[in-house]
Write a structure and sequence with these properties.
The complex is a heterodimer of chains A (about 100) and B (about 160). Chain A has a five-stranded mixed beta sheet. A two-stranded parallel sheet of chain A has the order 3-5. In chain A, α1 packs parallel to α2. Chain A has a domain of about 70 residues: STAS domain (Transcription Regulator spoIIAA), CATH 3.30.750.24. By secondary structure, chain A is α/β, with parallel strands linked by helices. Chain A is globular, with a radius of gyration of 12 Å. By secondary structure, chain B is α+β, with helices and mostly antiparallel strands. Chain B has one domain: Heat Shock Protein 90. In chain B, strands 1-2-3-5-4 form a five-stranded antiparallel beta sheet, with helices on one face. In chain B, α2 runs antiparallel to α3 and α3 runs antiparallel to α5. The two termini of chain B are about 15 Å apart. Classes of the chains: A alpha/beta (about 100), B alpha+beta (about 160). The interface between A and B is medium-sized, with 23 and 26 residues.
Chain lengths: ~100, ~160
């Protein structure tokens, strides 16, 4: 299960084991609720528990970036594996998302 | 001994409802089908990603989430080469070339990234797309598997 936590103005999203289209629908909905209701300006995606991701994961991040970047917010990604980094690079997300570790 | 294994053929076919719960089912089914070839973790993960992209496309775009169609998954093994066919009888693709462009999507409203075909191309050895508007779409992908098993079996 995905987990959401707001620390200061950072929304931490711990992504589930499998990030696909089925999971993405709920994650996007919940994330947008936090972004709008709790005025968070930055989003951190944590891939620590994630063992599988397809292009739906890229879509989740792109969509959240669009929502917060116009207010000067930033998007971060932590605990990504090599495959995820490759997918990030192919989609050009490495230019808009700060990858940590 | 290894050359004998190379001649082996195997085939499986399943169809399932075009609902998002079945995306993970399709990935697991294909991964299980090829386990006896001892593919590497990366190879399995690449296949899982490609299957996920093709099946998700069929569900979201082919049937436009109307939950009223079936996705047909057909896998063939010829030696260590896996052929995957994902077919839907949905609305079809008007412009295949454009659909395959990285970052192009007709559904940004659904938070789609437009990377589906790019990932299928990147993670499989070969990708073919056949589509007819109003009739449906067939995705054919191939990938050679278990190449590392040869190295592992040396000692």
């Amino acid at each position: 299960m995905e987990e959401f936590q707001v620390i200061n103005n950072y929304l931490m999203i711990k992504l589930p084991e499998e990030v696909d289209h089925h999971q993405a629908t709920t994650i996007c909905k919940k994330a947008d609720h936090y972004i709008l209701q709790q005025n968070v300006s930055n989003v951190v995606f944590d891939f620590e528990d994630t063992k599988f991701m397809d292009s739906s994961g890229i879509g989740i991040i792109m969509g959240r970036y669009r929502k917060i970047s116009c207010f000067g917010g930033k998007v971060y990604a932590i605990h990504m594996d090599k495959k995820m980094e490759r997918m990030f690079d192919m989609a050009g997300l490495n230019k808009i998302v700060e990858v940590l570790e | 001994m290894m050359t004998q294994m190379n001649e082996q053929k195997n085939e499986m076919e399943i169809s399932f409802d075009a609902v998002s719960q079945n995306e993970s089912f399709a990935r697991v089914a294909v991964a299980a089908f090829v386990t006896h070839l001892n593919p590497t973790m990366e190879e399995i993960d690449d296949v899982r990603t490609a299957v996920s992209e093709a099946v998700t496309n069929a569900i979201i775009h082919g049937y436009e989430k109307r939950d009223c169609g079936k996705v047909y998954l057909h896998c063939r093994l010829k030696g260590d080469v896996l052929q995957i066919e994902v077919m839907d009888k949905g609305k079809g693709i008007e412009n295949i070339e454009r659909a395959m462009e990285p970052l192009f999507t007709t559904r940004p409203d659904l938070d789609r990234s437009g990377m589906g075909f790019a990932f299928m191309e990147a993670f499989m050895d070969d990708l073919e797309v056949e589509s007819e508007v109003g009739k449906g779409t067939t995705i054919r992908m191939t990938k050679k598997l278990g190449s590392s098993a040869w190295v592992d079996s040396e000692d």
